[in-house]
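Structure tokens please, single chain.
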Amino acid sequence: MLIATERLILRRFRASDAPALAGYRSDPAVARYQSWDAPFPLDRAEVAVRNFAAGSPDQAGHFQYAIELTGERPLIGDVYVRLHDNLMQAEIGFTLATAYQRRGFGREALSAVLDRLFRVQGLHKVTGECDARNTRSAALLERLGFQREGLLRQQTFLKGEWTDDLLYGLLATEWAGR
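Here you go.
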């Protein structure tokens, strides 16, 4: 399981990724809209990497793709996929280290994963959800063709406050028409 793009390699996590994962997840700007708190300790990253590596992108459940730069090999982020039991739907999420944001890497990584989900695995629909205040993530989903399907008001209690969640969906027919 390896996905290559012009600038990126998306692959299974390995034990050596733990320090980089702890590094970018410890950045308060990266953690702001995520379920974890910064700092993200190395021992927690080691457990996370082991769990990520145990998943399968073709079986129901969670799979996390490691994103690295082609040639340079630094881990710059990850793409989360939760494949539903019916193997026809999935949820997607993403995280990028601050230094690699706003450079098109998120779009490139998500496009590659969506291509695999729709064209290789034959999924019918992929959904995404983000904190309503995370306008950059919402904009990226929209640039990829996701349609906003809803707003869940005060849906998630995160870091001491209730937050609104935006719901997005993308159908295989919409992706094929790109």
